[in-house]
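Summary for the lay section of the report: proteins are chains of building blocks that fold into shapes. Here we show the chain for Aspartyl/glutamyl-tRNA(Asn/Gln) amidotransferase subunit C and then a coded description of the shape we predicted for it.
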Amino acid sequence: MSIDTETARRVAKLARIKVEEADLPALAQDFNRILGFVEQLNEVDIEGVEPMTSVTPMRLKRRADEVTDGDQQNKVLSNAPDAREGFFAVPKVVE
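The coded shape description reads as follows.
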């Protein structure tokens, strides 16, 4: 697949990128180089290769999902400039 200047103009418009008319041929060449690289990647044999989430195979450390420091409402609200009925009080912003 080859990208011409008209296609480059259309892609720039869709991406909402202002490209000067004189720069369109260079942009089309850049797109063609990118597509060439993608075609090279398609030639790689990936048969039997499992997908990875990281370059180093390791599992994330997991911990039990349990509350460890709960029931600190009074301590948290002690720093609030204004607290009412167990909640932060803020100025009204909607009429």
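Put simply, here is one thing we learned. Residues 8 and 58 are 42 Å apart (CA to CA).
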